[in-house]
Write a structure and sequence with these properties.
301 residues; 12 helices
Length: 301
């Protein structure tokens, strides 16, 4: 009888090690067979590489103002120039970089806050669960746009201010989803076994529950990036987003909105980049959801 826990622990460790490797191999194979997700991943990687390294290789940078005002697209300026003579391609390189950076910060914040609060509420239940869920309800019913406007005006209107504010108001759905999954996991035999062996609540949450939510966390984090890109663009469009000298795709769109009819390329170039980022990330999220779903018998393509 005294040897049973040790044997059980050894068996559990062995199964976790080999099982985890097999699971990730299966997930990777399923994801790679999802043709639309793989094509989207390639496009997103190219967009990211262009945003990060494009400006370093392009002959003009964002400080260049030597072009003609509102020059039409040409071999020298493929996307034309802005009102003050800046090269639009250089601006889009930098705008994409900032938009992706903001989206990444928002996704990380929303994931960490939402996953932690959801797992704690679902596992501890009782008063903690009630408090967290009422907090979620409060954040959902309060006009987020008004709070974001107050926060942006109260602090410097830099890209990281916008990212932090959006991150603080983007975790609620993540928390709800992870709470529901945690409630289900908390009834499983391996959680009861961990409790019987004297594991602390924090160890059970971070060592047993969260690893089993990896698929849901990954998908939600991926989709949070797409949502953040659109949210940032919407805030910039109404004048509550990034302000110069920083820039973003949303800011580039609003700065050239008045040229929509006469010089449509100034509007559509950043707009198409935003659409591509959002679509590719959503398709990648679909592929990850299918890959992580244990009930999936075949992968949609």
């Amino acid at each position: 009888m005294t040897e049973t826990p040790a044997a059980g622990a050894a068996s559990s460790s062995y199964e976790f090690g080999t099982g985890a490797r097999k699971q990730w191999q299966t997930v990777l194979r399923r994801f790679m067979r999802h043709r639309l997700a793989m094509a989207s991943l390639v496009v997103l990687v190219l967009l990211t590489l262009g945003a990060v390294f494009g400006g370093a290789f392009w002959k003009y940078d964002v400080t260049y103002t030597g072009g003609s005002s509102f020059a039409s697209p040409s071999a020298d300026h493929p996307l034309g120039t802005s009102q003050i003579g800046k090269d639009m391609l250089a601006l889009i390189f930098q705008g994409t970089q900032y938009s992706l950076l903001i989206a990444l910060v928002v996704a990380i914040m929303a994931t960490i806050i939402g996953v932690t609060l959801g797992a704690v509420a679902g596992f501890l239940r009782g008063a903690v669960d009630t408090f967290v869920m009422r907090l979620v309800d409060l954040f959902l019913i309060v006009p987020q746009l008004a709070l974001v406007a107050i926060a942006v005006h109260a602090f410097p209107a830099s890209w990281y201010t916008v990212a932090i504010v959006l991150g603080l108001f983007s975790w609620m759905q993540v928390a709800r989803i992870n709470r529901g999954q945690t409630l289900s996991l908390a009834e499983r035999e391996f959680i009861e076994a961990a409790k019987a062996l004297g594991a602390s609540n924090s160890r059970i949450i971070f060592k047993h529950i969260l690893p089993n939510l990896t698929g849901i966390i990954t998908v939600n984090a991926t989709l949070a990036v797409a949502t953040a890109v659109l949210s940032e663009a919407a805030l910039s469009f109404i004048g509550l987003g990034v302000k110069p000298p920083d820039t973003s795709l949303g800011l580039i769109i609003i700065e050239n909105y008045s040229q929509f009819q006469d010089r449509p390329w100034l509007f559509y170039a950043p707009f198409v980049v935003i659409v591509l980022i959002s679509l590719t990330i959503n398709f990648i999220g679909d592929g990850l959801r299918d890959a992580f779903d244990p009930r999936q018998t075949k992968v949609r393509a």
